[in-house]
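Please, structure for the following, as tokens.
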Amino acid sequence: MALIKAINSSNNLPNLEARDTPAKQLATGIRALYYGFRLCLHPKVRAYTIAPLIVNILIFTGGTFLILDWVNTSLLAWLLSFIPTDLPSFLSWLDPIIGWLLGLLKILIWLGVGLGLLVVIANCFTLLAHTISAPFNAFLAEQVEKEERPIHYPHFSLKEIIVRSIWREISKLLYWIPRALALVLLSILISWIPIVNLITPALWALFGAWMLGMQYFDYSSDNNGYKITDTIAKMKAHRLSALGFGIATMGITLVPILNWFAIPSAVVGSTLLWVQIFDKHEDQITE
């Protein structure tokens, strides 16, 4: 736990460890992301963090700017075009009121669009950033694991690496599709049930958090030569810690500026959680 000790010595933070109660297990996953955020710019891993950080900043900043510009110049004008503003002369005294209501409507539209933007940023932008920074993330995960324990990675030829990578992504897709379809069907069924239908967003958020966690844990799993089914099995063995990590990671992607650090922080945090709990060995570095 070399990296953990780097901040424990001055902040008295507890080490990650398996917990017995559900609340503590969830907290362990959340704390792993906190450690990742604290350590992603640590001198021992900083060089491997720069590339994912730059990718994240460019995608989140550039993408957000383009969407905001589109909303401000096109979407608002299109939505407001449906509202009549030409009043008969005898109602001209209502012009100030209409202007005030249109201003209020613009604010409400911005609030609604803002919530939608958060979802877009958390999903589309994160997916794009993952795709571009994936090779750098694997190197970052490797460097973090080196600091925590001796590594004995299997060696693969270039052909094997390509085949493994393609099949790995296909396997994730095959895991996601039937569960997403089942969740869509469930969402449709309960949408007709008042009050109960309010759980639909929560179900999708939990599913998204689980899949997001899988994406990050799989860097260390793949580095160690495990199959994607092994990644899932280890996550299920520590289900609440994995879910807590995914929820915290999803949350940080919704916060402007902080989402710049989401990917490197999550890679570091997921590797620490993987090494110290999910795939703990007897030869861990403790000094």
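Residues 7-14, 282-287 have pLDDT under 50 and may be disordered. Residues 61 and 260 are 8 Å apart (CA to CA).
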